[in-house]
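Weekly puzzle thread! Below is a chain. First person to post its structure in token form gets bragging rights.
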Amino acid sequence: MKTSSDLAGRAVVILLCSIILIIGATFNSILNPELGAFVLAVMTLTAAGWWLWRRRRGWRWFRAPLDAAFALWALAFGLALLANLDAWRRIAIGLWYVGVYVGVWYVLLDALANGGIRREMLADGVLVGGAVVNLFGVTQVAAWAGAFGLERLPRPVSVFGNPNFLGAFLVVLIPLALSRAAASRSRVIRVALGFYVLLSLALLFLTFSRGAWVGLAAGGALWLWLMLRAGGQFSLRSWWRVQPGGLKAVWLAGGAAALIAAALASILLIRSLTAAGRDVGLRTELYAAAAQLFAEKPLTGHGLFTYGRGLVRLPGIEPDKPHSHAHNIVLQIAAETGLPGLAALAVTLALMARAVRANWKPSPPDPDLSPIVTGNERRRRIMLAGAGAAVVAFGVHQLTDVPAMMPAIALTGLIALVLAVAPAQPQPMTARWRLAGHPVGVMALWVLILVSGWWSNRVYNEYLTALRAAADSGDYRGAAERLQPVINAAPNLSLYPLEQGFLYGMAAAEGDADAARAGSAAYQRFLALDPGYALAWANLAALCEELGETERALEAWARAAELDPEIWPYAFNLGQAAEAAGDPARAEAAYRDALRVYPDAILYPEWDDSALRASLGDIYAVGLSAPAMTVVQLVNGRLDNARLAWEDNILPDGVQKAVIGALLDGDLNQPAAAERIAITPQERAWVHAGRAWMARMAGDEAGAARETAAARQQLTRGPLDTDDTDAINIAYGQFLRLAIPRWFLPGVYYPVDDAALVYLIENT
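Winning reply:
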């Protein structure tokens, strides 16, 4: 019978897990200082409440299973920090979150060892929080189906903002739910949890997170094997022999369904390896970058949370998009902490395996124990099987992605790890130095976490207040000046001068020469801290041009093009600057570099503004992409040639493919079908452009003009609207902060990334 204290403890654990996993540790609160303050308040109250409760109850201190590994991790982090003091502020962000995880680890182990909570409570906390996560996911799927139908399957994100994060959460949730169902004596609970698992599996499939699929396959295989062992059955045959007849039918049906699902997932997985935007090459480039960074500093690494900083400065690595992790946890550790980190990882894995094995065995061991274990022992092992499988699924997923970069996901994996390795028979500390030092160390850690967290939240709030003022008032210079106290408080956090430089640059675009000088100085401060960001060099070049500093502008344009050779506008801007400076040879070389990357650039109206560019356009026209060549032939009235060009298209199913196909077929209804799946402004612009062309072909000039205007409106940017959808990840992923959505100053030529669309609109 459950006592009132037991029910109260369960309620507290469920409440805290729900708050942290659903709200507190997601990017929603990390990026929002108001929510962040709420989470810090919860953390403060929880840490204080735990400390006071343990003192009141006279709890003892027990040994933790991974203390030796933690010492090695501390050494690895410390060496990496000392060897990379120029990046200490960025490293400090990573260390703060690691400190939180370590603090939570010791609180949970302490509460379990002293009987304050039980393993089932902790598992239930995750499962209840997971029910809310699933509810959000189902709601998103239903909303998608209602708005767009199922012509394209949705990829739900739930509360996490990314389907891969949801997948990482579900691979922990599913094994825990399976074990909770298997261990329950209540048929109602087992049935409810069965539906829970099926719903979670459906959402996991829709995430199309391939790493999560592989992770769950590994964790599921381990779970099945451990479940056989949990009841003393050492082979599948012996287990099958004792199953009731009706249950055998259920197992056969479930097994058949699982095999069909696995086959379908395997087919989709293999096909996705060559899909545009999701092919293997995108991963291997990130892996190569991590290997290159490790080779540079094998003994220390570049510092925790610095992979993104290193990636952008490697000119030979493409795609050079903002990423904060290597998509492989082992390579991530190698790049950031070097050999000491890899050694710490190896010791951690060994100690984890030893702890799980010790928990699996009866304690104390009894050689006369029957191979068919008791009911309580079997239930304990079933829960351990779920926790172990969850840890394996979580870990395997980190080999193809690193969703643990989101704290909510990291904490979910941490809870599973606690459930797996927390000693069934905890050993109290006996050494006097540990009895004296451990409490002081844990409490000092929490004080440091909370004090620094509150301070950082206050500074971040001041930063966002300045950005909001810029958006609300349009007073860019005033907002830039409001950022100075923020920069003074955190001078080594390079995002702050980056945003200040942008705001000064926007003021300079309105004719403020002093703002141009201030913006140039701010960008130089940023580049002194983080010299690898091409977009900062491009904006600096634009400001240098406004100040009449031609040579400095050329140097900055060249540096941007060198760092990001696959971003063709950098080479285009360099060519423009060289042409204006009277250096046609350098300009031609730059324009050729741009066309090598993106031959479709000749379709932008600005390309023909220069005679030099126009002459090159005739040469590179044969290299147009299939969609661009199709549109060009269509606009010029060569329908047969357009259809011939379209045969070479490799576009994935989507709006662009649907609209161009409709134009070739003359299908008036097809743009309407494409509209149902159009989500982004660019996709909606394609729909309007298709309608405009159809109207023109039908002789409806008024309708064509109306639809063309609507297409242009979709592509019109506000003064602070997004111009590069990938660049925002610099702030989100690499600094865990918000930023102005626009990244390039008006002096940087950076058009809509779809020349075929622009050409169709301009020629309708």
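Puzzle host: Confirmed. Bonus trivia for everyone else. Residues 4-362+384-428 form one domain.
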